[in-house]
Design a protein that fits this description.
Length: 454
């Protein structure tokens, strides 16, 4: 083909994930992107030559569109890449080059190197898994007896034998505490051995050493959990569930708006792939794995390179923040869009499309014995000569005195999706709730003032 697509595909499963160039240059609209995804499944973004493309497998037929809106529905790409002679479709290229489930376990080797440097090869090489009393030196058998040791192993699982400064030990992680006993029968209190080994200063336990060298047969998810525990102890912060993937400008909190432009974010996303949002010591950061290394920017506009890994202490392991992402970020969990995140996406959509609105108190009325207060939401669009009103929609609430009746649902006559075409890309329930909540907040501010006409 003359091109290596490894790492070049980005999977698109939401309309908001489509790179901004496709909207800016007229290649595709949000509503069409939503429609295509719903009807045919995921699309794939890639760059080839001077253009950006979206690809979709439509019932056994290849479909492409570029950022300008030019569609390719025949064999143009297969012929261009030379795969038509092999009887291949572009979907076969996706299957070969796009692997979303590939595990990244490089951090395990780095963790082993850390412990070898810290504890020395002699101690690491001395560690043995003990599943029978026959594997232990005679000193342990003299003090405890072979039957006692074997009964303990049968009840609590294997022990671990190691040699520290010429002294023989057995170790067991009892979950509530760590147990160390030497071959003379002496027990050591919690922390005493880890202090001698220098593990305590790093917030680590001997169980972390065991996990690094003796977990070859464990299921991947259990190994990942232990890596999380190890890194959480080392860094002093648990990133589980606290990292969000950013695939479009709509995913970036508004606090960043004054410090990094949507154009810059789209450039980074298109060139280097997804960014990640996290919080550390009360400051929000955007992170991206770029060609030159780790890239960070905080919500104050300051840029960072190596400072964050140094602050977390992972630089001593030779780890980058991308390793933290690989271990702590769960893409399936991030697919859950919270109400706050959904509202932020809608706000950004309004801003990017030049849509504004005003809310004004309308009137009080009565219907079927109910007292109703209403507000009007007026929508505006800027056609280049200032904003002009486009539509007005009322929202009604049941009230008693000058308060909205608790738990009373807003009353809408029709939905909001008809006002602008772009609203069709937003889930209808989320769209109606967004503007109903805005109307309710305005009315709650207004109603404490005594209604002037009784």
């Amino acid at each position: 083909m003359g091109i290596d697509f490894t790492g070049k595909f980005k999977k698109i499963t939401k309309a908001f994930d489509v790179p901004y160039n496709f909207f800016r240059k007229g290649g595709i609209s949000l509503s069409h992107a939503m429609w295509y995804l719903n009807d045919f499944g995921p699309m794939y973004f890639f760059e080839l030559g001077d253009y950006e493309y979206l690809y979709q497998d439509r019932g056994g037929k290849d479909w492409f569109i570029d950022e300008r809106g030019v569609k390719y529905i025949k064999d143009e790409f297969s012929k261009r890449l030379g795969i038509d002679d092999l009887g291949l479709r572009f979907s076969d290229i996706i299957d070969v080059y796009f692997n979303e489930g590939e595990p990244l376990n490089e951090s395990v080797d780095k963790k082993e190197r850390l412990f070898i440097d810290l504890l020395g090869e002699d101690l690491i090489n001395s560690i043995q898994v003990i599943t029978s009393y026959k594997q232990l030196p005679i000193g342990f058998l003299r003090h405890f007896g072979s039957s006692t040791i074997q009964s303990y192993i049968d009840a609590y699982g294997p022990l671990y034998y190691f040699v520290l400064d010429g002294e023989n030990f057995v170790y067991k992680d009892r979950e509530d505490y760590e147990m160390y006993i030497n071959d003379k029968g002496k027990s050591y209190l919690e922390g005493e051995i880890t202090d001698r080994l220098g593990l305590s200063d790093m917030g680590l336990n001997f169980s972390d050493v065991i996990d690094a060298f003796h977990n070859e047969g464990e299921p991947l998810n259990e190994n990942v959990d232990k890596n999380k525990k190890f890194l959480t102890n080392l860094m002093g912060i648990d990133f589980t569930g606290n990292i969000e993937q950013v695939t479009s400008t709509y995913d970036v909190p508004m606090e960043f708006d004054n410090n990094i432009s949507p154009v810059a974010i789209n450039y980074y996303l298109n060139k280097f792939g997804p960014m990640y949002l996290f919080e550390l010591d009360g400051i929000k950061y955007l992170y991206q794995d770029q060609d030159h290394g780790d890239f960070f920017i905080d919500d104050y506009g300051f840029y960072y390179n190596d400072e964050i890994p140094e602050q977390l202490g992972i630089d001593d392991l030779g780890l980058r923040f991308s390793d933290i992402i690989n271990i702590f970020f769960n893409e399936e969990e991030d697919e859950v869009i919270t109400e706050g995140k959904q509202d932020d996406m809608i706000e950004r959509l309004l801003k990017s499309e030049g849509i504004t609105y005003d809310i004004n108190y309308k009137k009080r009325g009565y219907f079927n014995g109910d007292q109703l207060d209403s507000v009007d939401i007026t929508f505006y669009y800027d056609y280049g000569n200032g904003r002009k009103p486009v539509a007005m929609k009322p929202v009604y609430f049941k009230t008693r005195g000058n308060k909205i009746i608790p738990y009373a649902e807003p009353i809408l006559y029709g939905d909001f999706d008809w006002i602008f075409d772009v609203f069709e890309a937003i889930p209808l329930d989320a769209l109606n709730k967004f503007f109903s909540d805005k109307a309710k907040a305005h009315l709650e501010d207004y109603l404490p003032i005594e209604y002037p006409f009784g």
